[in-house]
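Re: duplicated header lines in exported structure tokens

Our pipeline writes sequence and tokens for each protein into one text file. With two proteins the header for the second block appears twice in some exports. Here is an export where it did not happen, for reference. First protein block:
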Amino acid sequence: MPRKPTYDREDLISRARDLFWQRGWAGTSLKDLEASLQMKPGSFYAAFGSKDALFGLALDRYARDGLARLQQLVVARGPIGALQQFALMAISNPAAPAKACMLSKTLLELQAHQHPLAQEANTHLLKMESHFAALFRQAQEEGMIGPSHSAVALARRYQSDLLGLRVSAEREGVDALAIADEIGQALGRL
């Protein structure tokens, strides 16, 4: 009778996410994963199948966690307040292994190699853009912004600003908090 695994799969995926987020796909070796997850090679392959499979699970976790934070903010602050606070949260989490977005880092790293994980990252980015667009539509319905704006165009611009903000937060000498504040102020003027 096979033994039941003694590890917490969700915890392992979260730890792998953090390692991949910090180092990227190419910068994270199987030995790094085995050491970080405290797994022997056989256990690793039995649990996840491959580095790519685990990376896909880590991308999914990253995207789900980001969406959950956004949804909590919507409940607490409404659509525009949520978008304003989300930009600030993206760069001010001291526990995050990196400030730059894991999805955009993956897309940039792997797209030139036509790696399937680049497409997965892009799919997650497109889904997030659609959530942003839904919030802009909600803000229009609630009279917070005018109907002349395209919710899709606003979402694309917001996502672009957010990704740029996150890269800026990685740079020395850049006041990313001031940039986040400017993004929030621009949203308030719509």
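Second protein block, exported in the same file:
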Amino acid sequence: MRALLQRVTEAEVRVEGEVVGKSGPGLLILICAMAGDSEATAARLAAKVAKLRIFKDGQGKMNLSVRDIGGSALVVSQFTLAADLRGNRPGFSTAAPPDQGDRLYQHFSTCLAAEGVPVANGRFGADMAVSLTNDGPVTIWIDTDQL
């Protein structure tokens, strides 16, 4: 799986003008299931995200996790994280098929919530408008192939 984490003071996602998920302070997580990923991959990624120390402590050092600060997460599916850029038109054949992608997206969210992080979601496969106030800015890229 691939995930792009953004530390935020607030974030929300709208579908057809309606807010379907919001969060903050905490994380906006854009996530993509890749072909060959499994429930175990999603659970491992959720555990990593919950423990990742990217929030400031009392001395201003990135030493706290989203759990430590009592933060929440807005999780939004984004298959374009699988982009193959060898040509001028991105290809997405390495992304998981939609049914598997949706299942793993939901499983990741469930696992993250089980790690003690309140989770809101976008809507898988929908045309979504995401807004956020980036904090820092802090943006972290995670590919489970590299964990």
